[in-house]
Write a structure and sequence with these properties.
mainly alpha
Length: about 50
């Protein structure tokens, strides 16, 4: 095997890893959220409450 073939194989493997990682991260469940739209991960400490 010559150096060009080895470089092409390495680049191809890297591209497969990159695309596979993108697909996996889009399918994998997100951590830290319960999924019930309760906004439990939102910080409301800087919001002023206006009582009328």
């Amino acid at each position: 095997m010559d150096i060009q073939t080895i470089l092409v194989i390495i680049l191809f493997a890297g591209a497969l890893f990159y695309v596979g990682r993108i697909v996996y991260r889009s399918i994998a469940p997100k951590t830290g959220s319960c999924g019930s739209n309760c906004k439990c991960g939102v910080d409301f400490s800087n919001v002023k409450i206006d009582k009328k």
